[in-house]
Design goal:
Layout (H helix, E strand, L loop, with lengths): L3 H4 L12 H12 L6 E5 L6 H13 L13 H8 L5 E5 L6 H12 L8 E6 L6 H12 L5 E7 L7 H4 L3 E4 L5 H14 L6 H10 L4 H12 L8 H8 L4 H12 L3 H13 L4 H18 L3 H17 L5 H15 L2 H7 L3 E5 L2 E5 L4 H8 L1
Parallel strand pairs: 1-4, 1-5, 2-3, 3-4
Antiparallel strand pairs: 6-7
């Protein structure tokens, strides 16, 4: 059996999750026979760009009525799905990006389609093409043969030359919401006979960060387990995430001002092997949940502090970086009077750890501010 995300790849517009703003326009263009000669699909990875490009290729020669194209089942659609249609060329521009590659492509474009009304050229990771390769393709885009349709797919549209962009219809794909991904994961889990807790599925949906392909790749890892039902704790282990209970205890210590307790709990998680950035991100998620239940200015400030720490930890995944993140979040979450007093504490680096020194005169004021 192939990869799960390939097995579950949509073959019709209805099966594609989200991207309604793209599907609506393409459906109308297909029904009215108003497809243009070149499209640019841009957006994050794993959100359906190449999938919709293939669906468009199916629709071009589908045997169903225009309003129902593509059907996903006729001989034309099946050939596209199986990757063996002679008139659909899918090219990885990351490895076929030279002038010579474009010249070879142009020669193939000149040949009339064999089975379909049009040849469909899908250029994946199109931003990887060289400047000279784009220039070599420009004339073809300006005066394309009637029987050719281009689809450029890219995660970095800003790297596409303006001369190319101006000759395409540009659709910007968005990240999928956790709820959209969750609904699809429920459906796939049921089809695959997987018993899994709802909270475990929610964790997978969140971990995918808006990418349906990533969500299905993660779910495939879970399918290898022999436990039923699969619990949230099992998914945490598979994803390398700290236990939710431990994160909640750490967050409570921070928000309650129990600095020593927070340091001890974070230290324990760090020594168990959890990366500082992972801990900060899980703290952020736990803090967001508290914000929904009890919004407050202090919690928002703490969340912003953790956001900044997340960015810094991309370059400094050390224990010291983690200590700094905890200190900032702790400080921002304190009540205003106590925050003003505690700001006078002097962080010092001892070895690879951050230690706070409070002047003796502050002890009385801290107790009063509490």
């Amino acid at each position: 059996m192939g990869a799960l995300y390939r097995k579950k790849r949509p073959a019709t517009f209805d099966a594609v999750v989200g991207q309604e703003h793209v599907k609506e326009v393409l459906r109308a263009a297909i029904a009215k026979d108003r497809l243009t000669h070149a499209y640019l699909f841009s957006g994050p990875r794993g959100v359906g760009k190449t999938t919709l490009a293939r669906i468009l290729a199916m629709a071009v020669g589908c045997e169903a009525e225009p309003e129902g194209r593509p059907c996903g089942e006729c001989p034309h659609c099946r050939r596209v799905r199986e990757g063996n249609h002679p008139d659909v060329l899918e090219i990885d521009a990351a490895s076929n990006n030279s002038v010579e590659d474009v010249r070879e492509l142009k020669e193939r474009i000149l040949l009339a389609p064999v089975l379909a009304p049009k040849k469909v050229i899908i250029l994946d990771e199109a931003h990887m093409m060289s400047k000279s390769a784009f220039n070599a393709l420009l004339k073809t885009l300006e005066e394309p043969p009637e029987h050719v349709l281009f689809v450029f797919a890219t995660t970095e549209p800003e790297r596409m030359p303006a001369t190319i962009q101006s000759r395409t219809q540009h659709f910007r794909f968005r990240r999928l919401s956790d709820e959209e991904i969750l609904e699809k994961l429920r459906e796939v889990a049921k089809e695959e006979g997987l018993a899994i807790e709802e909270e475990a599925l929610r964790l997978l949906a969140r971990a995918a960060e808006g990418a349906m392909r990533d969500a299905l790749v993660l779910l495939e890892r879970v399918l290898t387990l022999e436990k039923s039902p699969v619990t949230r704790a099992e998914v945490e282990r598979i994803l390398g995430l700290p236990p939710a209970e431990a994160v909640e205890e750490l967050l409570s210590a921070l928000l309650e001002g129990a600095v020593e307790e927070a340091l001890k709990r974070a230290e324990a998680l760090f020594l168990e092997g959890f990366a500082p950035r992972t801990l900060v991100r899980e703290l952020k998620e736990a803090l967001k949940a508290r914000l929904v239940a009890r919004p407050s200015e202090a919690l928002v400030a703490a969340l912003l502090a953790l956001d900044e720490a997340d960015e810094r930890l991309a370059k400094d995944e050390s224990r010291l970086g983690l200590d700094r993140a905890r200190w900032r979040a702790f400080l921002e979450a304190l009540p205003a009077p106590l925050r003003a007093v505690v700001r006078e504490a002097r962080p010092e680096v001892r070895g690879k750890k951050l230690v706070l020194r409070f002047p003796a005169r502050l002890k009385f004021h801290i107790e009063r501010a509490r």
